[in-house]
Design a protein that fits this description.
heterotrimer; A alpha/beta (527); B mainly alpha (185); C mainly alpha (353); A: 527 residues; alpha/beta; Rossmann fold; six-stranded mixed β-sheet; four-stranded antiparallel β-sheet; 14 strands; elongated; C: 353 residues; mainly alpha; 2 domains; translocase (chain A); metal-binding (chain A)
């Protein structure tokens, strides 16, 4: 394979440099959040379908015990975050921008925190890729960078790889979860990377870190001489360098084809947190039941990073860190660029929650009223996907869905750079997300309509066929009757047809006789 | 003489242009769906019959023959607008004689009340109801078009039309619609 | 209490439309001061008139459209339009000239199209062109640069001229425009155009007119340098991108240089092209109006080049001595097609990084 991975770094078009504010939360080591009394574990925490629930209310569970199974590809199990009793299973608010309910498993903790683990794998090289992938699925590992794609599914590909890219960029402002994890657990991340390399049968891993994290870089340089397969690349700080497509462009100068995957170029990308989780799952048999969450913003007293069990309500996390709510408070899950606001604090921490941000109004000013677009083009200058954000905005407002697709709406990564620079404060990304949802709805409805049309046509055909079959049955019955008569006739029985003919002949003869008699009478009378 | 020359020249020109046109007609033939297919593609395929025709395709044929374009309540304004664009006529408001535009619904059978009469199965235009005589029936929810046609024939009124609720996957990013609870600080 | 819901991003760069506009008129200050220095105090009255008429016309138009005037005034775009038109027209033109220009610019060119962001044409330049073709005499009656004039035009003289047509001493504008030698003096571009049409050579025209005493013409050269200085601040502050001004100046200078090289006697020198008339004001303040310009950087460069070439053509071969306004409007018309062919290739669609 032609190598495009040299030490040269490229750049991507556009991008922005928002205030980073990372020092707010990256000063202290990762702390462990005390146990909560109640955990709410959503059964779907990754992108893909939820697995079937295998526990019922009243069951006693141990920490690390699976609550759902993974039967189909794309499904991932979720695990009990602590020991306790299943209180109820039902709908509740989950970590989704819509605030719509999804199925949650509520667990009352017993405080003992008894744990069950999988069998640790000592020498992973003695195991096949398939076995290790099974382990990664059983541990419930999904991409911890944000999208939450099942790691096993991503690894389970048969195409040759040029390199595995480990993403430690963490370009979103405020968030320092990966930064702290890299500083404190560089060795585990490297081991996880080696396991991943073994699984995908690849020799080379590139670890990319932004140059605003010198401490993380230092902790890796201290251990990397043990791991010659892993190369470190320190890349310039710019948002959104951590986007999968942007990072590949920075490292290789190549672009992932539209609607394609990095694997099309021979690359696979995993987040540092995922590599860490893989190492724990394989070497220690620990399932993914906790993650590092950054709690930050000026409205918490103890900003920092915390080991948080999945299913912990955000309320518990914020209560522990000294949250002071102000009027019109925003609670953001994720960072200031791509995170979403929570309607209330019952929402649980899930696999993809890397940050809870509670800013003060002075810190992150709430959006002002949208003003008219002055076509200044600042948005196009910063768009890392090289789209025309203002054009998309006009089209989205006009609901011109064909135009939107022509302008490559679906190549938008929703990074928010355009809305960040817009002098008219137009919530551009929001318009794109709405338009994308509408385009998807239209496509779905169209597909449904097509199915309905086919079913309608099929039914019409069926009814027509049934009618034909009915007629055919009648015809066959009639023929069978005929045939039976003919056979009976041959055997000497009188042909009913003959009887009819005879009757007709008789009737004709009688008519003729009558007519003849009448004529005779007339002749007589006239004579 | 000059008359003959003129005639010959024009006959020759006519022949050449005729050949060019004939060639172009074959070479650059534009495959286009017959108008009925195009109309049918716009209609929502609920097969509900509210337009007065037995299904979407018959209505498409009727429109192609000059019927009004505003008789489709499930399609609503959006469908009327698209039909107007396609047919080159003015869009007009939905004809309320045929019904009102409403949210998408799906039929649900209250299964413990079902007597297994198969009347709804026969009424369903898209064969989305599963069951047999004297057996309980059920609606295949993702095949149901919400056409309403099964409700009327049911002798025990055990079919409900339930509005489709948005899920996280089908959410349209309406931040204003999130129910917000008041939290004590 | 309730938690506030909002769409991401939750952080925002602190540069709003009104701040952008404020930068634009702050950067006009050096040009306005030199305008005052060379052409008298009339420019202040013209700006005041333009602002009053423009903002009132906008208020009425917006009210008729059923919108709130507060949100419309908030973006300060009308202020910029008013200032640009006021410095573009002769500073002693009668009061009704600027009034008609502003009403046309704001009502017809801006609000009728749907307000800021919707207009196809640069409002100030559309207003300018309407004035130029309707009132050619008033629009070409530039006062003399102070160094050549017999008397300074102070504020009361200017007010009197603008509102009554005569100075307090009873002189008309025409009389004021006469130089020390008693001849009516034209702007450098006017003088060149008339001289060249009358078959004089460029050096002859230069020798015969006192206005060519400095590079770009007395007053005009310095004024253009002032606009250039303000424009460079705008570029440095990233209020405007460099593409349009560079395009305009290149599009104007390159053909001018070629013509000067081959026909030095019958063409306008590059120095006059660049430092006279509306060149710098147009390149940095007018052509860069984001609403009516091309949107991508590549497109902006082409847009600028087109304006520059058009200015050159109009000045050299057209019927008007200066062509900035026409060039800008013609380029505005070409924006859709420029945008179409300069659209960047989206990520993953085969473009090179």
């Amino acid at each position: 394979m032609k190598t495009s991975l040299t030490h040269q770094l490229w750049t991507f078009p556009g991008g922005i440099h928002p205030p980073e504010r990372k020092d707010l939360s990256n000063q202290v080591a990762i702390a462990t959040l005390p146990l909560s009394s109640v955990y709410r574990v959503p059964i779907k925490q990754h992108s893909g379908a939820a697995g079937p629930i295998i526990v019922s209310p009243g069951d006693k569970v141990l920490r690390g015990q699976p609550l759902t199974a993974a039967e189909l590809p794309g499904q991932l199990p979720v695990h009990a975050p602590t020991s306790g009793t299943i209180a109820k299973i039902g709908p509740g608010r989950v970590a989704h921008p819509s605030g719509l309910p999804d199925t949650l498993i509520e667990i009352n903790a017993d405080g003992a925190d008894q744990r069950q683990t999988l069998e640790p794998i000592g020498d992973y090289q003695a195991f096949s890729a398939a076995d290790l992938i099974t382990r990664i699925t059983a541990a419930g590992i999904a991409g911890l960078g944000g999208a939450g794609f099942p790691t096993a599914q991503k690894l389970n590909q048969q195409r040759p790889l040029e390199a595995l890219i480990i993403n430690g960029v963490e370009c979103e402002p405020y968030i320092t979860a990966d930064d702290r994890l890299m500083r404190e657990h560089a060795l585990d991340i490297c081991r996880g990377t080696m396991i991943l390399l073994h699984i995908v049968n690849c020799e080379r891993a590139i670890l990319a870190i932004e140059d605003n994290k010198p401490e993380a870089v230092a902790s890796f340089t201290a251990v990397l001489n043990e791991f010659p397969a892993i190369e470190l690349r320190v890349i310039p700080t710019k948002y959104p360098s951590g986007g999968e497509k942007q990072l590949i462009q920075i490292l290789t100068g190549r672009q992932v084809p539209s609607r394609g995957l990095p694997i099309d170029l021979g690359f696979l990308m995993q987040n540092v947190g995922t590599a860490y989780a893989v190492a724990r799952a394989v070497e220690h048999g620990e399932v993914l039941d906790q993650r590092v969450v950054t709690v930050t913003g000026e409205n918490v007293d103890k900003p920092g990073n915390y080991w948080v069990r999945l299913g912990t309500p955000v309320a518990d996390l914020l209560a522990h860190t000294g949250f002071r709510a102000e009027p019109q408070q925003r609670v953001i899950m994720g960072g200031p660029m791509m995170g979403f606001t929570l309607p209330d604090l019952t929402v649980p921490i899930v696999k993809i929650s890397n940050c809870v941000l509670v800013p003060s109004t002075q810190e992150l000013e709430p959006a002002q009223t949208e003003m008219p677009c002055i076509r200044c083009g600042a948005c196009a200058d910063v768009c890392p996907a090289q789209l025309l954000p203002q054009q998309l905005q006009w089209l989205a407002k006009a609901k011109d869905y064909d135009g939107l697709e022509q302008q490559n709406l679906f190549d938008c990564i929703e990074c928010g750079a355009c809305a960040y620079v817009c002098p008219s404060e137009i919530p551009l990304v929001h318009y794109y997300r709405k338009a994308k949802a509408e385009v998807r709805t239209i496509a779905r409805e169209k597909a449904q309509a097509e199915v309905a049309r086919q079913r309608f046509e099929a039914r019409k055909e069926r009814l027509e066929r049934e009618k034909q079959e009915r007629l055919e049955r009648h015809r066959q019955a009639a023929e069978a009757r005929k045939k039976a008569q003919a056979e009976a006739q041959q055997q000497g029985a009188p042909n009913p047809q003959d009887a009819v003919q005879a009757a007709i002949a008789r009737a004709k003869a009688r008519k003729a006789a009558l007519a003849a008699a009448k004529a005779k009478q007339e002749d007589d009378s006239s004579a | 003489m000059s008359l003959v020359t003129g005639l010959l020249v024009f006959a020759g020109l006519a022949l050449i242009f005729g050949l060019i046109l004939g060639f172009a007609a074959v070479r650059f033939k534009v495959e286009s769906d017959p108008i009925v297919d195009q109309i049918d593609a716009i209609l929502p395929q609920t097969q509900c019959g509210q337009c007065g025709y037995p299904g979407c395709r018959p209505y498409a044929e009727a429109i192609a023959n000059g019927d009004e374009i505003n008789k489709c309540p499930p399609g609503g304004e959006a469908t009327i607008k698209k039909l107007a664009d396609l047919m080159g006529v003015e869009a007009k408001p939905l004809d309320s004689a045929h019904g009102e535009e409403s949210v998408k619904k799906v039929a649900v059978i209250r299964e413990d009340e079902c007597i297994g009469c198969t009347k709804c199965i026969q009424a369903c235009p898209v064969d989305a109801i599963l069951g047999a005589a004297k057996q309980m029936h059920t609606v295949i929810a993702h095949e149901c078009t919400g056409c309403d046609l099964c409700v009327e024939p049911c002798p025990v009124d055990c079919i409900d039309m339930v509005p489709v609720t948005p899920k996280t996957e089908t959410w349209q990013w309406d931040l204003q619609q999130i129910p917000v609870k008041v939290v004590e600080s | 209490m309730t938690f506030k819901l909002a769409a991401s991003p939750h952080t925002h760069q602190k540069r709003s439309t009104q701040q952008v506009m404020r930068w634009v008129y702050l950067c006009m200050i050096p040009g306005i001061i030199l305008h005052h220095y060379f052409f008298g105090a009339g420019v202040w009255l013209q700006m005041l008139l333009a602002l009053i008429v423009g903002l009132s016309a906008e208020a009425i138009a917006v009210k008729l459209r059923g919108r709130s005037i507060r949100t419309v005034w908030r973006d300060h775009t009308t202020v910029v339009t008013a200032l640009l038109l006021a410095v573009s027209i002769p500073s002693l033109a009668p009061w009704w000239v600027i009034s008609i220009g502003m009403i046309f610019a704001i009502v017809v060119v801006k609000q009728v199209y749907g307000g800021v962001g919707q207009n196809l044409f640069n409002p100030a330049m559309a207003g300018y062109v309407v004035l130029l073709i309707s009132f050619p005499v008033q629009m070409s009656s530039w006062p003399l640069a102070t160094e050549l004039a017999q008397q300074r035009v102070d504020l009361s003289t200017a007010a009197s001229l603008i509102f009554s047509g005569y100075t307090p001493a009873g002189y008309s504008l025409e009389q004021l425009r006469m130089g020390v030698d008693g001849l009516t003096m034209a702007t450098p571009l006017d003088a060149l155009r008339n001289g060249l049409t009358a078959q004089f050579t460029t050096p002859e025209i230069f020798a015969s007119q006192a206005i060519f005493g400095a590079v770009g013409g007395i007053g005009w050269g310095w004024l253009n340098l002032a606009w250039l200085a303000g424009g460079l601040i705008l570029v440095q502050q990233r209020i405007i991108s460099w593409h349009i001004p560079v395009g305009v100046l290149l599009g104007l200078a390159v053909p001018a240089a070629i013509f000067q090289l081959f026909n030095p006697d019958t063409s306008i020198p590059v120095s006059i092209h660049l430092l006279s008339g509306a060149t710098m004001l147009g390149a940095f303040f007018i052509a860069t109006d984001p609403v009516s310009a091309a949107t991508s950087n590549r497109g902006r460069l082409w847009f600028g080049l087109l304006i520059g070439v058009l200015v050159f053509i109009i000045r050299s071969f057209g019927g008007y001595p200066d062509g900035m306004a026409f060039a800008v409007l013609l380029a505005n018309m070409c924006v859709p097609i420029i945008d179409k062919y300069t659209q960047p290739i989206a990520y993953g669609h085969g473009g090179k990084s």
